[in-house]
Design a protein that fits this description.
The complex is a heterodimer of chains A (127) and B (256).
Chain A: H1 4-18, H2 20-28, H3 50-70, E1 75-77, E2 83-85, H4 88-95, H5 103-110
Antiparallel strand pairs in A: 1-2
Chain B: H1 3-29, E1 45-49, H2 50-54, H3 61-69, E2 85-89, H4 90-93, H5 104-108, E3 110-114, H6 122-126, E4 132-134, E5 140-142, H7 152-156, E6 163-164, E7 188-189, H8 195-198, H9 205-212, E8 218-221, H10 229-236, E9 239-240, E10 252-255
Parallel strand pairs in B: 1-10
Antiparallel strand pairs in B: 1-8, 2-3, 4-5, 6-7, 9-10
The chains are: A mainly alpha (127), B alpha+beta (256).
């Protein structure tokens, strides 16, 4: 290990370079780019908390779908006791009227294309 | 620490971290279920009063109400047609009932036809994905999310009550009911006895339209429920079912 110092130095330079995107973003104190979504005006809380919706909206929508189609139910009681009619078009788009300014922006950003809208209707945007 | 011990320790550490991550994911995944209520077990059936219906030749109120409520497209090309509720001649509807003395008027009499919601539904039996199945309350339900478009159900249905979307149906919709999904190319669809209205306490759209017009040719309900109009009518009058010898046990009864 005669060249220990050189190896360690080289490794440090490599790690610093490989992590450059992270350091740069941290130094700029903002993420590189973020989707800008338009939130409904005058609404304080979604069906569940914003954090929950951010993480679990897909699972929630799948559960809603199964509840309506497979089990013939149509009411959802949120964790804070409020009751909602289970409906993508009626309840979700009732507040998020512009899906193109909400759903699509994040989905485009992370490169997923859910097929909801091949059947479900966006009342204010398309037939 | 020698290399062997280092690898062992690092491996254990990585395993522990991974395990913790999997554990939290599992806990999260089980806490998003919607609340479940118990659905009343019922057996839905429809009665079509052929005499009352024949009083109103050319009437399309039930068909128009159904097709508007469910975004059923009007496709002119018969091979690509999509129908939930339509009219067929008496002769085509009840081929076993026609004999050499049946008059032309009777043969040509239009009869409303739809999915029979058979008690022994062949479509539900052959569906490979569970996209169509028989609910506890008798409805033959359709889940387009799971439909792979194999059309086994269409081959199995002896009544031609199922339609396949050979193309995107949206260009053929004159008006769109936003609250009900359209369908996409490649799925089969059929009447669901208005499951989405029943859960909200409403009668099927066709029945509502017929009653609103004051014609009363369509009855709907649970024939086993005491006092139900459909139960009384089925007990008091003669009723036909389509192709009963096939053993499908249709739940749409034609009062004659």
């Amino acid at each position: 290990m005669a060249d220990g110092a050189k190896v360690a130095g080289g490794l440090m330079v490599f790690v610093a370079l490989a992590c450059a995107p992270i350091w740069l973003v941290l130094a700029r104190r903002s993420t590189a780019s973020q989707p800008e979504i338009e939130l409904p005006v005058g609404q304080k809380r979604c069906v569940e908390s914003a954090e929950f919706m951010r993480q679990r909206h897909a699972a929630l929508l799948v559960d809603w779908r199964d509840a309506v189609v497979r089990e013939g139910l149509n009411r959802y009681v949120a964790s804070d006791g409020r009751e909602f009619r289970i409906s993508l078009t009626g309840t979700c788009l009732g507040c998020h009227t512009q899906a193109s300014a909400f759903c699509d922006r994040c989905h485009a950003y992370i490169g997923v294309s859910p097929e909801c809208w091949s059947c479900h209707v966006r009342p204010s945007e398309n037939p | 620490m020698d290399r062997r011990d280092f690898i062992k320790t690092a491996g254990l550490g990585a395993f522990g971290l991974g395990g913790a991550a999997v554990g939290t994911a599992l806990i999260r995944a089980t806490t998003t279920k919607p609340s479940r209520e118990v659905v009343r077990a019922k057996r839905w059936a429809m009665g079509i009063d052929l005499r009352a219906c024949a009083q109103h030749p050319g009437c399309r109120k039930c068909i128009d109400a159904c097709h508007a409520a469910h975004n059923v497209p009007s496709i002119p090309e018969p091979r690509h047609e999509v129908k939930w509720l339509w009219k067929a001649t008496y002769e085509r509807t009840f081929p076993e009932q026609v004999h050499e003395y049946t008059t032309a008027t009777t043969r040509e009499q239009p009869v409303p036809v739809l999915c029979n919601h058979c008690a022994n539904a062949p479509c539900a039996r052959v569906c490979p994905t569970g996209a169509t199945w028989k609910r506890a309350d008798g409805i033959v339900m359709m889940d387009e999310h799971r439909c792979i478009g194999c059309r086994y159900c269409m081959a199995a249905c002896p009544y031609g009550a199922r339609s396949f979307n050979w193309q995107d149906p949206r260009p053929y919709l004159h008006t769109v009911t936003a609250d009900y999904p359209t369908r996409a190319k490649g799925v089969v669809e059929t009447c669901t006895f208005c499951a989405e209205r029943l859960v909200a306490g409403l009668p099927p759209a066709c029945v509502e339209a017929c009653q609103a017009a004051g014609f009363g040719a369509l009855l709907f309900g649970d024939p086993d429920e005491p006092g139900a109009e459909i139960g009384r009518a089925l007990r008091a009058r003669d009723a036909l079912r389509r192709s009963p010898a096939l053993g499908t046990a249709p739940q749409v009864f034609y009062l004659v």
